[in-house]
Design brief:
The chain is an alpha/beta fold. Helix content is 44%, strand content 14%. The chain contains 12 helices and 8 strands. An 8-stranded parallel beta barrel has the order 1-2-3-4-5-6-7-8, surrounded by 6 helices. Helix 6 links the parallel strand 4 and strand 5. The longest helix is centred in the last third of the chain and has 17 residues.
Length: 263
């Protein structure tokens, strides 16, 4: 990709909260049948035309959804921001990111074969490792975000690694919003306490000079409340729920509906 002139953590008055569309599930659908339908590169093109502020992918070693070659092809058509997520303990992932130089790399502590991300980094235990790998990406001109749980100590640990941003892992927020089952009607019990944990973590990150992203199980019902609670949120990355909604509502309409939740 060409060199990018972007602010690491732009003020909200300049850009607002961005919607980065994670297109992994489109690749899962393609791989289930074989062939190239849907064409994930075309999905990335269209998502940007439909208003997405960025494209997120999360290639895994088994390539069960996004493949490394997909990452290369998508890199050629990015007109917004490109965010590549993954586990940096996999050297192939590090090599891919350094080859493509996306706008942002999001470091996630996934285990091999893990279905989906389910926790943030222990930024205290892995401080030395994170500091070293983050410097590798930053020296290549890539903005770095790391996946963390809404725990003050983990946010403080993140700041000590040199990362530009954190991505708050929002599954706990989504569960509190809907109760224990994601498809239930919204619940009030425990919701206030949980959202307060995210507010405190985000405020601490801001105080320490970190940008704040968020992702995991955010959807059309719970996104607006989260955004209102953390108005300085830089970016949300949403895939599964957005793709599910797009099946019924259409991709263009769905992207616009999500963006309206961020206003």
């Amino acid at each position: 990709m060409n060199e990018k002139n972007i602010l690491l953590n732009p003020p909200l008055g300049v850009r607002g909260t961005k919607l980065s569309v994670n297109i992994n599930k489109f690749a899962t659908l393609r791989n289930a049948r074989g062939g190239n339908n849907p064409n994930v590169t075309q999905v990335a093109i269209d998502a940007q035309l439909f208003g997405a502020d960025g494209i997120t992918i999360h290639p895994r070693p088994d390539e069960r959804h996004i493949r490394y070659n997909d990452a290369r092809e998508i890199s050629k058509i990015i007109t917004t921001e490109y965010n590549i997520e993954g586990n940096p303990t996999e050297q192939s992932f590090v090599d891919l990111v350094l080859e493509l130089k996306p706008h942002q790399v999001t470091l996630v502590p996934d285990a091999i074969g893990q279905i989906t991300s389910n926790h943030g980094w222990n930024t205290i235990q892995y401080k030395d490792y994170l500091t070293n790998i983050i410097s590798v990406f930053k020296n290549a001109g890539i903005r770095v975000s790391i996946f963390v749980d809404p725990i003050i100590e983990m946010v403080e640990g993140a700041a000590s690694t040199g990362t530009n941003r954190i991505e708050l892992y929002t599954e706990a927020y989504a569960k509190s919003f809907y109760g224990e089952h994601l498809m239930d009607e919204p619940q009030i019990t425990g919701q206030k306490q949980t959202i307060n944990e995210y507010i405190l973590a985000a405020n601490k990150a801001k105080e320490l000079g970190l940008g704040v992203n968020a992702g995991h199980d955010l959807d059309l019902q719970n996104l607006k409340q989260f955004k209102q609670a953390i108005p300085f949120l830089n970016e949300v990355s949403i895939g599964h729920a957005l793709v599910c909604d797009a099946i019924y509502l259409g991709l263009q309409n769905t992207i616009q509906m999500y963006k309206r939740q961020l206003m």
